[in-house]
Each structure stands twice: as structure tokens, then as C-alpha cells.
Design goal:
Number of helices: 7
Radius of gyration: 23 Å
Structural class: alpha/beta
Mean pLDDT: 75
Distance between the termini: 65 Å
Oligomer: single chain
Strand content: 5-15%
Strand order of the largest sheet: 1-2
Order of helices and strands: EHEHHEEHHHH
Length: 146
């Protein structure tokens, strides 16, 4: 059985408390550090050794980590590191779902089959992305003038 650990670096105690409260119900151990504690930790050889031992870490900013952690320190995505022409996965997923629903004229069961996901998953994602399948059904029932 694996154990999930989340490291939170924040000077906002309210954010830390909120994260701890949320994740404790999901069997996730939360380790919280202030910015100062995190910086001090990076000066500590044991702390850096843990990062280098295969525990990936995310960092933000231009290049705040100047340790020998190697490839285990991953750049955290931020507004400055994302390209404007790259779409987020959520946007692509929502677009694919909308296209499938329109193609199958609002039939969510057929759209789910075409997307390769379960019907319940599609219903959840439709709700998550605020997609209205009834709009596709209305298009199908519109009479065509001859």
C-alpha cells in the first residue's frame, strides 16, 4: 500500500489549514512549510538528499532552486511558463465531449461509447464542464424546411 504525501509551501496559514483539512479525508499526509522554512530546508543537506533520492518536487519562479537535486525538481506551471497557444487538458476534454454530444445529437450513451468512457463518467464531466446536452437534442428536433 502506498502513502501519498503532499508538500505545501505557503505563508498563508489559512491556505495551509484548508489543504490539511481537505486532504486528511483522502488519506494524504500534508507537510506544510513557510517560505522561510522551505529555503532553510534547501540549505540542509539531508533535505536536498531526500529530493535527490527520487522524491519529485515542484518549484515555481524563474530558477529559485540552485541545488544538486538534478531531474527530480520539476518546474511548477505558472502564468510565465505556459505558452498562449497551448490548450489546457480540461479545455481539450470539454471540447471533445461537446463535439461527441453534438455528433450523437444529445445521446449521452452513444457519446460516451464514442469517447471510450463510461456513461456515469460522461454525466459527471458534463456537469463539471457545465455542458448542456439538451442544446444538441433541440438541434435534432428542429424541422427542416423543404
Amino acid at each position: 500500500m502506498s502513502r501519498t504525501v503532499m508538500i505545501v509551501v505557503s505563508d498563508n496559514q489559512e491556505t495551509v489549514d484548508s489543504a490539511k483539512k481537505y486532504w486528511e479525508n483522502h488519506d494524504v499526509t500534508v507537510h506544510a512549510y513557510s517560505s522561510a522554512q522551505w529555503r532553510e530546508g534547501l540549505d540542509n543537506a539531508f533535505f536536498r538528499q531526500q529530493l535527490a533520492a527520487g522524491v519529485p518536487a515542484l518549484v515555481s519562479g524563474n530558477s529559485p532552486v540552485t541545488t544538486d537535486a538534478g531531474g527530480n525538481v520539476l518546474q511548477f506551471p505558472s502564468a510565465t511558463t505556459t505558452s498562449s497557444n497551448v490548450q489546457k487538458m480540461e479545455e481539450l476534454e470539454a471540447q471533445a465531449i461537446e463535439n461527441a454530444i453534438v455528433q450523437y445529437k444529445g445521446n449521452l450513451t452513444e457519446a460516451a461509447k464514442a469517447l471510450g468512457i463510461g456513461r456515469a463518467t460522461l454525466y459527471r464531466k458534463v456537469k463539471q464542464y457545465h455542458i448542456d446536452p439538451s442544446a444538441a437534442r433541440k438541434k435534432k428536433s428542429t424541422p427542416v424546411a423543404a
